[in-house]
Amino acid sequence: MKKAYLGIDIGSISTKGVVIDENNQILADSYVWTLGNPIQAVKHVLQEIARKLDPGYTVVNTGTTGSARKLVGVALGAQVVKNEITAHAVGTLAVVPDVQTILEIGGQDSKIILINNGVVMDYAMNTLCAAGTGSFLSSQAKRLDLELEDFAELALTSENPAKIAARCTVFAESDLVHKAQIGHSKADIVAGLCRAIVLNYLNNVGKGKQIKAPVVFQGGVSKNAAVVKEFEKELQLPVYVDPNGHLMGALGVAVLCKAVKEETPFDFDIADIHFETKGAECTHCPNNCEIICVFKGEALLDAWGNKCEKGLAGIAV
User: Fold this and answer.
1) What pLDDT is stored for residue 169 in this prediction?
2) Which residue, 161, 164, 134, 166, is CA-closest to 149?
3) N or C: which terminus of the chain has fewer CB atoms within 10 Å of its end residue's CB?
4) What's the pTM value of the predicted model, to 2 decimals?
C-alpha cells in the first residue's frame, strides 16, 4: 500500500482539494466553485479526485482548512483542521522552503504572511472592503464587458495606466466610469484597476509590514500577470507565482496530515452520503446562542456556536 494524504481548502468563492504522497508531490487535485454550498462543493472535489487518483494509493489521513473547515472537517471525519494562515504557510514552505513573504489575494479576502526561518512571525488579513480582492476585478470586468481571462492581456498593452481610486470599491467604480467618460482607453482603465488592486493591498493588508524576498504571490488573482507586474514594480522585488499557487492551502493541510501518527483510511464513497446543516437557537439562558448542527442522515455529528456549557440543552433539532 502506498500512502497518500488528502487536504481540502473550503473558501467562500472556491473549494480546492489535493492528494499528496509522502514526498509532498501532488497526485491528484480539484478546483470548483463553492456556490454557497460547501458540502456539495466538497463532494464534487472528492468525486473528481477519486477519478484522478492512482488506485495504488490509499489516503490514510485527511485535513481541512478555509472558512468552512470545521463544518467539512466534521462531515469528513478529518484528523486535521487548521486555519488558513497555518495551512498556506506550510503549503508554501513545501514548495519554496526559503520563502519570507506570502502575498495572497482570493475571491473575497486577502492576507499577508511573514515568515522567518520557516516560522510564521506575523500576518494580516483584509478589512470588510472588497476593493482589493478577486471579486472586485471580476465585477469590473463585467462592467467593461470583458472576460476575466482577457483582463491581464489587455492591461499589459497599456503604456499609461489610468489612476483609479483604490481605497474603496464604490469610489473605484465611480472613478472607472469617470475615466471612461473622459476618454481613457479600455486598456489604460484595466491597467489602472490592476494597479489599484496592488496599491489597496499594500496600503491595507501590507501596511507597516516589512516585505522581504523571496516573495510568493498566490490566490486566484496571482494568475493575473498584470497584477504580478504591478507588485514587482511597487516592491522592487521579484514575485514568484507557482503554477499550483491556488492549491497552497489544501497542500499545506495535506502536509500537516503526515504528522498524525494514527492513520484513518479515507473512503471516497463518503461523497454519496447525505449531510445536512441546521441552525437552531438555544433558549436555555439569556445568551440565546445560535447553534449550527451537522447531521449525517438522521444522526447528529456535531454542533457548535454555544457560549456556555448548557450547549444544546432544550433545543429541538
Assistant:
1) 61
2) 134
3) N
4) 0.83
